[in-house]
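Tokens in:
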């Protein structure tokens, strides 16, 4: 019986852990990034587990720490820019949301950031240059 309780506790703890991820997509001469951080809270005040912004995309998390903040997403963005050799960014969008489970017992916080990185050597506006067609716009 103790083994079943231990397994159940481990499953609940694993389900309530947070996650920090950084995804990069390169397409059409543009470099887009999505940064996310999630965490679980008990009674909306006590952090149970949240993503580790120092080690995104790994199976690490922080227990009893609040890391689901816009500041931590900006920190992950700065680290990504250094790794990608980006000299700036544009179209930065950030939002946070909360989801309650079991009324007020558990709350999931989520911080999402999407951005287009300016990587030197690409087209000036981040899009590949396309040749103009002759006679375009004339009839």
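Residues out:
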């Amino acid at each position: 019986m103790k083994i079943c309780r231990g397994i159940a506790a481990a499953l609940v703890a694993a389900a309530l852990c947070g996650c920090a991820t950084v995804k990069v997509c390169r397409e059409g001469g543009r470099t887009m990034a999505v940064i996310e951080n999630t965490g679980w809270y008990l009674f909306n005040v006590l952090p149970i587990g949240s993503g580790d912004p120092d080690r995104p995309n790994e199976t690490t998390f922080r227990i009893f720490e609040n890391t689901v903040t816009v500041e931590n997403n900006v920190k992950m963005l700065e680290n990504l820019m250094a790794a990608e050799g980006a000299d700036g960014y544009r179209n930065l969008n950030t939002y946070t949301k909360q989801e309650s489970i079991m009324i007020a017992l558990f709350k999931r916080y989520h911080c999402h950031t999407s951005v287009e990185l300016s990587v030197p050597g690409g087209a000036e506006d981040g899009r590949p240059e396309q040749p103009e067609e002759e006679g375009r716009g004339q009839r």
